[in-house]
Amino acid sequence: MASNEQSKDRVFLAVIGDEDSITGLLLAGIGHVNDQQKKNFLVVDAKTQVSTIEAAFHEFTERKDIAIVLINQHIAEKIRPTVDKYQQAFPALLEIPSKDHPYDPSKDSVLKRVQKLFGD
């Protein structure tokens, strides 16, 4: 179990998603820019390079102020090996659906690990 020490300064969500998902979450109030002018979100469109998505994923998972990283599942598919390798408790990683791409439980790396743990 993760100690309170590991999680006490983790107060923000980070999001890697399409424009509609990011817009909705920003309207809900998750947007933040830290002292180093780093945003806690990345808008991904058809022109966004995979290397940019991976760089944002690594940045968000290494930041000590991020508690949860949300990523649209269809975007996680673009960096699936990187997402599958990630196994830290903090920040927690959650794959979410988008307006145009429904959630597919068979592709979710966290759900796969849970099913493996319970022998399903």
Layout: helices, strands, pairs:
Layout: H1 4-7, E1 12-17, H2 19-27, E2 41-43, H3 50-62, E3 66-72, H4 73-76, H5 80-85, E4 92-96, H6 109-117
Describe the 3D structure.
There is one protein chain. The protein has 120 residues and is of the alpha/beta class. The protein has a single domain, classed as 3-Layer(aba) Sandwich (Rossmann fold). Helices cover 38% and strands 18% of the residues. It contains six helices and four strands; from the N terminus they run H-E-H-E-H-E-H-H-E-H. It has helices spanning 4-7, 19-27, 50-62, 73-76, 80-85, 109-117; strands spanning 12-17, 41-43, 66-72, 92-96. It has a four-stranded parallel β-sheet, with helices on both faces. Helix 2 links the parallel strand 1 (12-17) and strand 2 (41-43). The mean pLDDT is 88.
Estimate percent helicity: 25-40%
Class by helix and strand content? alpha/beta
Named at the architecture level, the CATH assignment is 3-Layer(aba) Sandwich
The low-confidence parts are: none
Strand ordering within the main sheet? 2-1-3-4
The N- and C-terminal alpha carbons lie at a distance of 23 Å
Q: What is the third-level CATH name, the topology?
A: Rossmann fold
Q: What number of structural domains do the residues give?
A: 1
Membrane topology: Peripheral membrane protein
InterPro entries: ATPase_V1-cplx_f_g_su, ATPase_V1-cplx_fsu_euk, ATPase_V1_fsu_sf
Family: Belongs to the V-ATPase F subunit family.
GO molecular function: proton-transporting ATPase activity, rotational mechanism
